[in-house]
Design goal:
By secondary structure, the chain is an all-alpha fold. It is 69% helix and 0% strand. Among the domains are: 97 residues, Alpha Horseshoe (Serine Threonine Protein Phosphatase 5, Tetratricopeptide repeat); 87 residues, Alpha Horseshoe (Serine Threonine Protein Phosphatase 5, Tetratricopeptide repeat), CATH 1.25.40.10.
C-alpha cells in the first residue's frame, strides 16, 4: 500500500502513526538538547509574569502582557514550575505538540477525503521550514494554534459518516477560540471554512450561516490582539506606504511557495527587501500572482479545483503575515519561516496528492528529515544560533548585536565590541548596539568613549532613554563626576519613575558620599519595585548598619541571603550586624 493510501484498519493506522512519530523524533532529536535563543528570554526566562505566582491570572485578566495569547502563556507559566531554566523540558513539549499536530493533520485530511493524507502528514512532520516553529521555544504559540485550528476544522466537518451537528459546531467554535487565544494567526479560519465548503460543493446559505459565529469570534479577538500589540508601544515599525506593502505581499507569497517546495538556504533572518513601486520589477510578482489566479479560476471545472483549493488555503493562511499590517519581527526581515507554519499544509497536501512511486515518497521524506536535523543543530546554543544566522545573512544587524551579548557574557569583550560595531555599521541608529558597545567601553575603563556611545543611543531612539541615561550615569561616575551621574540617574527616573535600577544606582552614589538617609530611601524605593533584588537588600543593610540601625540591617541581610544563599559578603555583613546587636 502506498504511503498516501487510505485504510480503515485500526492496527494499520496505529502502525503508521507510530512510524510518523518515530521519523519525527529522529528528525527533531537535536532540538531536544537546544537552548534558549533570540527572544526566549523576553517571552519566557526573563518574563516577570511567567515567574509570578499569579502570572496565569495576569495573562488572562489584565492588560500587562504585550500580546493577548493567554493559552500559550499559561502553558509556559505551568512549565516554568516544572522545568525552570532547563530548556530541554520546553523543547520536549514543543516536539510533542508538533508531532501531535502532524497526526491531527493526517486525520483531518482523511476526513476531507484528500488523497495522500498520510504522506502529507509525514512531509509536514519533517519539513525544515517548521524547524523555527519547533526548535524555537517562543513559537509554542504556532504549535498550539495549529492544534486548535485543525480541531476546529474537524469539528466543523462532522463525522465522516454523518452530517455536521450543532454540538460539533459548538466544539469547533470553542477550539477556534482557544486557537485565537494561542496566536491570532488562525483568524483566517472562517475564510478557510468557506473554502472547504466550496471544495465540497456545499456552499449553501445554511452552511454560510454556520460560519458566521466564527467570523464574530475572529473580529473580536483580532481587535483585542491589535489593541494589546499597540497599547503603550512605539508607533509604526515601518514607514512603508500601502502600495509598497501590497507589492511586498505578492513577492512574499512566491517566496514562501519556493521555500515550501524547495526548502534550501533557510535562514532565521532573511535579507531585507526593498520594493520600489516606481519600478516594473516590483510589480511582477503581484501581476504574476493575479494572472495565475485568473487562469485557475477560469479552468476550475476543467481540473484546476485542487490547485485553487490548495493555493487558496496557502494564501489565506499567509495573509496575516504578509506585512499589510504591523508585525514586530518585520523590523528585522519581511519574511520568516514561522509565518509559513499553518500555510505549509496547503502545499504538502497538494504535493502528496500527486501519484508518485513509494520509493520517491520515501526519498522525499528522508531528504527533508536530513535537512531538518541539520537545521535543528543551529539551535544548540545562542552562540551557534547567531553564527549560523550570520553565515546565511551577514547583514543581520540584530544577530551581530545578540552575538556580541553572548560573547560579553563569556567575558570576551573585545570580540563582543567587534560585533556591536558591525551591527552599527549596518544600522547606525541602532540604540541597543550603542548601549552595549558603551557597556564594553565602560568595562574596559574607557568612560569617555562609553559616554559617547550612550549619548548616541539617546539621540538614536527615545525608546531606550531610561537605559541610556542610566548607563551614561555609570560612565560619569567612573570618570569621577558624581554630580553628573546623579543627574543622569534622575533623568532616567523622569523617563520611568518605576525604574528600580536608577533608584539602586542613586542609593550607591549617596552611600559612597555618606548621605545615608537619602541612600536608604533610594534602596527602599528600588525594593518597593523589585522586592527580590538581593543586591539592593544587601546594600540597604550596609546603609542601615552604618546609620546605627543594626537590627534593621540584620533583617535586610537575612532577606538578601534568602534570595542568594551562601553569598560570602552578605554572610560576613550579617555576622557583623549580629555582633553589634550583642555588644549593645
Amino acid at each position: 500500500m502506498p504511503l498516501g493510501g487510505y485504510t480503515s484498519d485500526r492496527a494499520h493506522r496505529l502502525f503508521l502513526a507510530a512510524g510518523l512519530i518515530a521519523i519525527g523524533l529522529v528528525a527533531y532529536w537535536p532540538a531536544l538538547s537546544a537552548g534558549f535563543v533570540f527572544d526566549d528570554d523576553y517571552f519566557l526566562t526573563a518574563n516577570p509574569l511567567i515567574r509570578a505566582g499569579d502570572g496565569w491570572y495576569r495573562f488572562w485578566c489584565t492588560t500587562q502582557p504585550d500580546d493577548y495569547w493567554p493559552v500559550t502563556s499559561t502553558t509556559l507559566w505551568l512549565e516554568w514550575r516544572l522545568w525552570g531554566l532547563n530548556a530541554a523540558g520546553y523543547h520536549l513539549t514543543n516536539l510533542v505538540l508538533h508531532l501531535g499536530g502532524a497526526l491531527l493533520l493526517w486525520s483531518t485530511l482523511r476526513r476531507l477525503r484528500l488523497p495522500g493524507a498520510y504522506f502529507a502528514a509525514l512531509l509536514f512532520a519533517v519539513h525544515p521550514v517548521n524547524v523555527a516553529s519547533v526548535a524555537w521555544i517562543t513559537q509554542r504559540k504556532n504549535l498550539l494554534a495549529l492544534l486548535f485550528f485543525l480541531l476546529a476544522v474537524r469539528g466543523f466537518l462532522g463525522r465522516a459518516d454523518s452530517r455536521p451537528t450543532r454540538t460539533g459546531d459548538g466544539l469547533s467554535l470553542a477550539a477556534f477560540t482557544l486557537g485565537m487565544l494561542s496566536k491570532g494567526s488562525v483568524a483566517m479560519l472562517p475564510a478557510v471554512l468557506l473554502l472547504v465548503l466550496w471544495w465540497q460543493r456545499r456552499l449553501s446559505a445554511r452552511n454560510i450561516v454556520r460560519v458566521l459565529p466564527f467570523v464574530a469570534v475572529a473580529i473580536v479577538l483580532v481587535a483585542v490582539d491589535i489593541w494589546f500589540q499597540h497599547h503603550g508601544q512605539p508607533p509604526a515599525i515601518r514607514s512603508t506606504g500601502l502600495t509598497a506593502r501590497v507589492l511586498a505581499a505578492g513577492a512574499a507569497i512566491w517566496f514562501y511557495l519556493g521555500k515550501a517546495l524547495w526548502p534550501a538556504a533557510l535562514a532565521f533572518f532573511y535579507p531585507a527587501w526593498r520594493i520600489d513601486p516606481a519600478a516594473l520589477r516590483g510589480w511582477l510578482p503581484l501581476l504574476a500572482l493575479a494572472a495565475v489566479a485568473i487562469l485557475l479560476w477560469r479552468t476550475r471545472e476543467r481540473g484546476s479545483r485542487p490547485l485553487i483549493f490548495a493555493g487558496g488555503y496557502f494564501c489565506l493562511m499567509l495573509a496575516p503575515a504578509l506585512g499589510l499590517t504591523e508585525v514586530g519581527f518585520m523590523k528585522y526581515s519581511l519574511v520568516a519561516d514561522p509565518y509559513a507554519h499553518l500555510a505549509l499544509i496547503g502545499m504538502v497536501a497538494l504535493a502528496a496528492a500527486a501519484p508518485v512511486p513509494r520509493a520517491a515518497q520515501a526519498a522525499a521524506v528522508a531528504g527533508l528529515a536530513v535537512l531538518t536535523v541539520l537545521q535543528c543543530r543551529d539551535y544548540s546554543n545562542p552562540a551557534t544560533f547567531y553564527r549560523a544566522a550570520l553565515a546565511r545573512n551577514p547583514a543581520a544587524w540584530v544577530a551581530h548585536n545578540n552575538l556580541g551579548l553572548v560573547l560579553l557574557d563569556q567575558n570576551r569583550p573585545d570580540e563582543a565590541a567587534a560585533h556591536f560595531r558591525a551591527a552599527l555599521a549596518l544600522k547606525p541608529d541602532y540604540a541597543e548596539a550603542h548601549i552595549e558597545l558603551g557597556n564594553v567601553e565602560l568595562r574596559l575603563g574607557r568612560s569617555e568613549a562609553a559616554a559617547r556611545e550612550f549619548e548616541a543611543a539617546l539621540a538614536a531612539h527615545a525608546g531606550f532613554a531610561r537605559e541610556a541615561h542610566l548607563d551614561l550615569g555609570h560612565a560619569r561616575l567612573q570618570s569621577g563626576r558624581a554630580a553628573d551621574a546623579i543627574a543622569e540617574y534622575r533623568a532616567a527616573l523622569q523617563v520611568d519613575p518605576n525604574y528600580a535600577n536608577a533608584h539602586y544606582s542613586l542609593g550607591n552614589v549617596f552611600f559612597a558620599q555618606g548621605r545615608l538617609n537619602v541612600a536608604i530611601a533610594e534602596y527602599r524605593a528600588a525594593l518597593a519595585i523589585t522586592p527580590d533584588d538581593a543586591a539592593a537588600l544587601n546594600n540597604l543593610g550596609s546603609a542601615l548598619f552604618r546609620a546605627g540601625q543594626a537590627r534593621a540591617a540584620a533583617d535586610a541581610y537575612r532577606k538578601s541571603l534568602a534570595l542568594r544563599p551562601g553569598n560570602s559578603s552578605t554572610l560576613a555583613n550579617l555576622r557583623r550586624a549580629l555582633e553589634a546587636m550583642r555588644t549593645r
